[in-house]
Structure formats: C-alpha cells, structure tokens
Amino acid sequence: MELLLVFIALFFCYLWINNKRKNKLKIYSIEHYMKMDNPIPVCGAPDVVWIDRQETLIVGDYKSRYDGKVYESDIIQLSVYRLLVEKTQAKNVAPYGFIHFKNRLRVKVDLLSSDEVISLYRQYQDVTGGTVKAHCTKNKGYCKYCEYLGSC
After folding, report:
1. Helix/strand/coil (H/E/C) assignment for every residue in 70-133
2. From CA 19, how far away is CA 5, in angstroms rounded?
3. Domain-by-domain residue ranges, the chain?
4. Burial, 71: exposed, middle or buried (Cβ in 10 Å; 0-12, 13-18, 19+)?
5. In 3D, which of 19, 22, 26 has the Cα closest to residue 57?
6. For a disulfide at 60, which of 48, 65, 71, 96, Cβ 3.0-4.6 Å?
C-alpha cells in the first residue's frame, strides 16, 4: 500500500514538472497581414502573435536594437497591433505585449487601451487635416522626424 502511494505521489510530481517545462506560449501567427476599417482604418502585420494556455492572444515585436530600452513609440506600435488583432480575431487579447531585442532580452509592456489608440488616431487626423495646429512634444527626439516641424 505504501509503495502504491509513493508511486502515485511520484507520478503526480512528474506530471507537475512536465507541465512546468512545457512552453506556456505557442505561436498563433507570424507577420500575418491584417486589416480593419472600424472603428478606425488600420492595417499591418504584427511580428508575432502568441496564444497562451487560456486561449488569450499576446502581441510581440522584434527590435534590432541591443539596448533593451522601450520607447513610447514601441508601446504605441504594439498597442495598434493589439487593437488590430482584437478586432480581426475572435479571441481575447492580453492588455500587455512583449518586445524582443537583439540581445535576446524580452520586455513585457503594458499597452494602451483601444480607446487610447483610437484617440491618438483622431488627434493625428486633426493635425494632418488642419483642424488642430501642431505643437511641440515634450520628447524633442520626435521633432527631428516630424513633417510639421516648420509649422510649430
């Protein structure tokens, strides 16, 4: 009887350890082009979308940088991908994503909500449409790439 209990205990330990070793994320799609028109027109191909054990999708992006620094633009890009995946796939999408760097560092980032992404898009449309005058950002690094720099 004792031998049977030991065997059962070892069997459950084996199952627990084996379960922990299994990859918790599986690839759902790689650079799969997606497009939507509502609530805003967006298209793109997220670098990777994973699916976890609870069938939740998680977006990821690969960067060729080594520094491991996450920029606001990285979070915006991944948040747009999240919205795109959320509106085109019939599955839950996590409110976070992962950014992978060339040095194999992986950083988990909280993403903007769908409403925040839509608001950013509408702000952009207002500026490019001329209904709102462009103004300088707090992050001066963005200014050097801005096509509206002359009108600030």
Report:
1. CCHHHHHHHHHHHHHHHHHCCCCEEEEEEEECCCCCEEEEECCCHHHHHHHHHHHHHHHHCCCC
2. 21
3. 24-151
4. middle
5. 26
6. 48
pLDDT tens-digit readout, 68-95: 899 999 999 999 999 999 999 989 999 9
Q: What are 38's two structure tokens?
A: 């509502």
DSSP state of 8: H
CB proximity list for 26: less than 8 A, separation 6 or greater: 50, 51, 52
Which position has the token pair 């795109």? 84
Model confidence pLDDT, tens digit, residues 88-134: 998 999 999 999 998 888 899 999 999 999 999 998 888 888 788 77
Q: How many CA atoms lie within 13 A of 17 on its CB side?
A: 6
The CATH number given to 24-151 is: 3.40.1350
Residue 44: its H or E element = strand 42-44
